[in-house]
From TrEMBL, chains A, B:
InterPro entries linked to this entry: Cro/C1-type_HTH, HTH_LacI, Lambda_DNA-bd_dom_sf, Peripla_BP/Lac1_sug-bd_dom, Peripla_BP_I
SMART domains found in the cross-reference section: HTH_LACI (SM00354)
Residue intervals of the HTH cro/C1-type domain: 8-51
The UniProt record lists the keyword Transcription regulation: yes
Protein name: LacI family transcriptional regulator
Natural source organism: Sinorhizobium numidicum
Keywords: DNA-binding, Repressor, Transcription, Transcription regulation
Organism ancestry: Bacteria, Pseudomonadati, Pseudomonadota, Alphaproteobacteria, Hyphomicrobiales
Length: 340, 340
């Protein structure tokens, strides 16, 4: 098979039997090495036909040729897929990825953001899954070289990359409204998070357009977890399930919800309709196959790497932009007209 | 909430605003620092009531308080869950985890194994997903401080931790045999890998016991991927599907297989029975819910961390042992007697 990726600093380091930062510092002229070591590195550079990565030039202060990726929870397939996409894209560019799982705890997030200041990584792709109390934004604004992806850190001045959550909510609402639903339950993440706010705003816009004020939207806010999906399912049943349709705003929530409904003999879509969000898991094999808004997870990963490399970090922070990636609705069999 | 984990070197480093290795080297007496920096670190140690981690003592040469975890592909939920389990266990012990995704390429595996020699990590949990050509074993034997988990590197002298794959294959075969199946298709990974060999050996043992030589087992070998599952499904259909039951030896294979069978109108279990392996994905929500051998993925992660910390690495390598973790069969609705 043809060699598809460029030789990286890492390859040179491996061939010369030294650390990446030794090679990097030799190239920057900032390190005096024994002649023999120096020769080994220079030989490796020639042998491997290494050229410093042009994409990484703008991140050049640290030149570890390593980017950091901070995610909340790798066991969640959405984040796992995002990580894999970042790894694949970085690999194409000859960059290494250091991956850090925060378990969604702010203390860990702070520690990892500080890696930039210590030059352990040249830049970070940062993904959080909880509202910020201001500390994350402050740190991001101080260090720079951070791309905020998937979920917002509202006061951070950084390039930001999200799915078009509002549009996703709108597509879900429109699909439900077209099937005649006017009484819909929204199951979201924390109320303060933009993913949740925007998905709800889109749902509300669609229902407004369709029902001209006569629609009723109830809301449960919690976490994007299977456990919260189960909790929401129990609450929905306990409240006598007046809504005729549910918009479950993550795969994990949908899985927990379906488990509970099924255990109580509530049929989808005969008794209640369901639209999901993410479409990373094998929803197409579920009984019934679940209609869902599909997030472009792999594109988020690819674009986040590109943004990190292409951003001019010397620009005034006011000019950083928010990029929205398109979502789509994948129609399967979990939506029907309301039960009489 | 109560603080559940011990203060780590990382916490001290964060509080003092220095790198982990600076703290570590100060404690080892190997670094002279400005008096002011030294005082900041010492204050942090007192403030946080830090005690060097007793669990990590045996890994003490590097004392980065960081363990490395090398996995093939994070997008695969089996590996994602394993990673999350290692992260959670390490966190309890006050250790950081550096995670490396190899994309299942040997060049990357080699580079990451070399991190131990460079003291970037104190030890590694190593997970591969392809047969070794001898290079991995050589490197593991040279560096030490590597726990081989999930899949074997046959010539490596290292503590090894696997699911009881043979028992899993046996349970699958026994369940199929009890339903009257005598003609079974095994869809496995690469023929040379122990996961594949042992799952097949268990299946063969069960069929031998039940059918006394009259059973017929056909085999497809490939990769533990959705794509290979689809390929296997197409081949099974093209061959006129003489087997009455399939043992798909990973969740990913089962997903690809079910997709193809469903698209061609082949019903499970009416037309063909199916037993899966892993049970990490939401197989319980599939149509029909899939009977599968469940791997103890979280236990593999926890035990791998424990093995890394508890192994006496000065022992002669001959005394390293292989540990097998128990599997179970989760019976759902994808197995029925053979169609007439």
């Amino acid at each position: 098979m043809a060699r598809e990726r460029a030789t990286s600093l890492k390859d040179v380091a491996a061939a010369a039997g030294v650390s990446i930062s030794t090679v990097s510092r030799l190239l920057n002229g900032s390190l005096d090495l024994p002649a023999e070591t120096k020769k080994r590195i220079e030989d490796a550079i020639l042998d491997l036909n290494y050229h410093p990565n042009p994409h990484a030039r703008r991140l050049s202060r640290g030149r570890s040729d390593t980017i950091g990726l901070v995610v909340p929870d790798i066991a969640n397939p959405f984040f796992a897929t995002l990580v894999a996409a970042v790894e694949a894209e970085a690999d194409k560019l000859g960059l290494a990825v250091s991956l850090y799982a925060t378990l969604n705890r702010q203390g860990r997030e702070v520690a990892y953001l500080q890696l930039i200041e210590r030059n352990h990584v040249d830049g970070l792709i940062f993904v959080t899954n909880h509202p910020d109390n201001g500390q994350l934004a402050e740190l991001i604004n101080r260090t720079g070289k951070v791309v905020v992806a998937d979920e917002d850190v509202p006061d951070a001045n950084a390039p930001k990359l999200f799915s078009d959550n509002e549009r996703g909510g709108y597509l879900a609402g429109k699909h439900l409204a077209e099937h005649g639903h006017r009484n819909v339950l929204f199951i979201g993440g924390a109320e303060a998070m933009i993913s949740s706010r925007r998905r709800l705003a889109g749902l509300e816009r669609a229902m407004r357009e369709a029902a001209d004020g006569s629609a009723n939207i109830s809301k449960y806010h919690g976490e994007y977890t299977i456990e919260f999906g189960r909790e929401a399912g129990r609450r929905f049943l306990a409240e006598g399930r007046p809504p005729t349709a549910i918009f479950a705003s993550s795969d994990e929530i949908a899985i927990g919800l379906i488990e509970v409904l099924r255990a109580q003999g509530v049929s989808i879509p005969e008794d209640v309709s369901l639209v999901g969000f993410d479409d990373v898991g094998p929803l197409h094999l579920f009984a019934p196959p679940v209609t869902a808004i599909r997030q472009p997870v792999r594109s988020i990963g690819q674009r986040a790497v590109a943004l990190l490399l292409e951003t001019n970090w010397q620009e005034s922070p006011g000019s950083f932009r928010e990029t929205l990636l398109p979502v789509e609705i994948v129609v399967r069999k979990s939506v029907a007209p309301p039960a009489r």
